[in-house]
Amino acid sequence: MATILTNSSKINSGRFGVLKFIAQVIQGRWFMLCASFFILAGAGGVYVFGSYSEAIKRSQGYDQSTLNFLGFCKDLGGNLGAPIGFIGEVTPPWVVLLIGSVLNFGGYFMIWLVVTGRISKPHVWQVGLYIAIGASSQNFANTGVITTCVKNFPESRGTILGILKGYLGLSGAIMTQLYLAFYGNDSESLILLIAWLPAAISIAFASVIRIMKIGTRQPNEQKTMNNFLFAPIVLALFIMAMIIAQRQIPFSKAAYAGSATVVCVLLIILPLFIAVRKEFSPWNIMEKVLAHAANEVIIEKPQIVEAKEKAKDDPNGSCFSNIFNKPERGEDHTILQALLSIDMLLLLISSFAGYGTNVTVVDNLGQIGESLGYTGNTVRSFVSLVSIWNFFGRVLSGFVSEILLHKYKVPRPMLLVFSHFVTCIGHLLIVFPAPGSVYFASVIIGFSFGVVWPIFYALVSELFGLKHFATLQNCVLMVIPLASYVLNVRVTGFFYDREAKNQLIKSGKEWVKGTELTCIGTECYKLPLIMMACVSFFAGVTSLIFVMRTREFYKSDIYKKFTEKAETELTTSSVVCDEERVSNSGVER
Known about the structure:
The chain has 2 domains: 28-212 and 220-282, Growth Hormone, Chain: A, CATH 1.20.1250; 336-565, Growth Hormone, Chain: A. It has 24 helices and no strands. The relative contact order is 0.13. The chain is mostly helical. 79% of the residues lie in helices and 0% in strands. Helix 1 (2-15) crosses helix 13 (282-299), helix 16 runs antiparallel to helix 20 (437-464) and helix 18 (376-408) runs parallel beside helix 20. It has helices spanning 2-15, 18-27, 29-41, 49-60, 64-79, 82-90, 93-115, 124-152, 157-183, 187-205, 221-248, 253-280, 282-299, 303-313, 335-339, 342-363, 365-371, 376-408, 414-431, 437-464, 469-477, 479-506, 526-555, 560-588.
């Protein structure tokens, strides 16, 4: 190995110029990971719905039920992902990302035209369609990026998913800082920003996102993952400091521009520095030599082995023949085997409650703040706090669950139990408000909302295998629009409008359909949020059942097959490289 390293280093220093090293960085999997961060950091337009929903409501004269219906359309578009999963299984990731960028710009640009009055007033269903189209782009970004990264880093999936979903959760706060710098305090321009910026980022980096043959853990891989984890944490802390400062001190245009500049530096420069340093390290040079040798061995696999693998991947009979003959947890399931399992049922219940109860608060933050007497700037602070602590929940759940799993064999669903029970506290802080309680509620709900996302993705990949991961992860998300419609539209919107109409009647007025309907006071959201707390508690109990069912599985080495594959490839590569070195030595003599 020492000879390989020395020879590789000489080759690198003697023949590789600056341009070749740049090409090596761009083609490497670490730059691919950085590009994934950038794409997801701009893909969270759905998370700032609470910041621009009031502009839609005001410009179109909607009541709260109508606005919540638009929130449902957002969730429907952003989570109706099974077809997108199928697309991701039959096309390369760059195709998925480019489709998403087109839909992102088309949908949000049409919303901007509607809100600014540049087109005639559309029907409600048309606005809902525009929002659904724009929101669907996030699912394309999720499928193209997350599926690729999990397959490239299968043994680090908990940490990887935490960081990726963390950047997505932080995207709302990033967008807020950028739009304040670009456009000032103008919520209509925020819609324009989330139309063009995410689309531009996806187009710029789509070609970099690809599945690579080297997808196994290297000796220092976890250290590199921890370094990548450091970058978004610094970014989140800076944005949180800016939110606090912007609330206390009036910011000028130049101050907002300076803040946005620092955000861009922390978002782009720190991850790139880590990726370049990793590519420059001697270990990575040796890794590429071994990878090349391993690929040569893979090309020369006996046809008998290929035939067996093909038979394993494509068993005889239709896809319905083995529905109830399920493989062990951790092995590749067919789509129907996974969907009809009890584990998937428990996961769907947790997804329904985890998303539905939290998104009800997130989508209604503008109206919650208004009903409790907060100003527009303060409401935007709530939205940013939710986004930042959503990030911390995502990052820490992935990182902490990996530690708990590897060191203490704690089942990963235990994090779902924690999230659901903590969510109850956040809802009750809004129901029974005290000075500053909504700030704490924003932090709690943002954090608990963030915790569930990496866990959902990790559970799908660990319990049902990676073969149909692109489709199965999107099947889990498809329950989310139902949760949004039931809990947000039918429950929360109904009770809000009923209380608002009662207030009008008490004041001697009558509501005219087509005009804005506003509710003021603690009663506006009291009953719905108590119901949300009960749903969260029920989900926590069902997640405890999930923990009991999977505890034996998580006591085993769930990554054993990936470790064995890595050791086999490295051993084979070492033998091939040694043979090549001996052969070259004979030629030199």
